[in-house]
Every structure is written in structure tokens, then in C-alpha cells.
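Hi support team,

I submitted a single chain yesterday and got back a structure, but I'm not sure I'm reading the C-alpha cell output correctly. Could someone confirm the output below corresponds to the sequence I sent? I've pasted both exactly as they appear in my results page.

Thanks,
R.
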Amino acid sequence: MAGILDSGDWLSAAYAAHGGELYGFAMRALSDEGLAEDAVQETFVRAWRSRARFDPELGSPRTWLFAIVRNVIADLGRARTRAPVPTDEPEAAGAEESLDDLLLGWQVEEALRRVGDLHRQVLVETQLRGRGYAELATELGVPEGTIKSRVYYGLRALRNVLEEMGYGD
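Hi R., thanks for writing in. Yes, this is the structure output for that exact sequence:
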């Protein structure tokens, strides 16, 4: 794999396969065409520089590139908040919050994809949809203790995945 990553061919193929998706993601997050283009360009620069750290055992190139673009977007968002531009638009105050919400949602979604199916199911139902353990146990035909156990181990697995993705407490 290292030989493939050392050539520029993988970069061209990755851009062709994922550049449009990355641009769309950056555009939704940044609401600025120029910044979105810069984010995609910076994503591929960082991918090229850190190509030796890519591990196909941990995820696909798409997942890796989205993790990089998420970091680039966060960096651009922080840079914009350091040098605020005066505006009369009331929604501008909430722009940072919506960016944070978008990034957090993506982060949780990606982490949940990496957790096992049984754990993901109970985490989504109990933590995100607010369903009770007893109700879910009845629906799935398992003891309530099994649901509690799956939630416990699912949260532990989710925390481990988030740490592997580079997110701390």
C-alpha cells in the first residue's frame, strides 16, 4: 500500500472519487465557495503530507479524507472567529454554533458506524431516541439486563472509537 500512496496516482483517484463530496460538505459547513474550495485543497495537501499515517485497517480513504476535511473546517472556523467581521445579519451569531453542531453530528455519526450493530442499535434507540430499556427489551425480545449491558459496552466502544478518531473527553 505504501508504494501506491507514494505515487501521485492515488491522490488523483481520491480527488476524482471524493472531491465533490468533500466540497459539498465544506460548502454546507462554511457557506462560502472560496473557503470551501480552500478547505478541499488543504484537505488533499494534508492527506499528501500525512499519507504514511493512513491505515486501511482503520478505515477507508473516504473516511480518512472526511476526518481531515472536518479538521480543516474546524481550523477555518476558528480562524474566522479570531478575526470577526462586523455584520448586521442576526444569523451570523449562530453560525459558529451551527458549524459546531454540524461537526459534532458528523463525528457521532461516523463513530456510530464503527460500533457493532447490536451496540449501535441500542445506543441509537436509548440515547438518541430516548426510548426506555424495558420498552426496547420487549420489542427486541431480550431481557432488560441485556439492553443495559449493550448500552454500557456500546458507550465504552463509542468512547474508544472517538478516541481513535482523535477526540478526547
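A quick pointer for reading it: The chain has two domains: 1-114, 115-169. Let us know if anything else looks off.

Best,
Support desk
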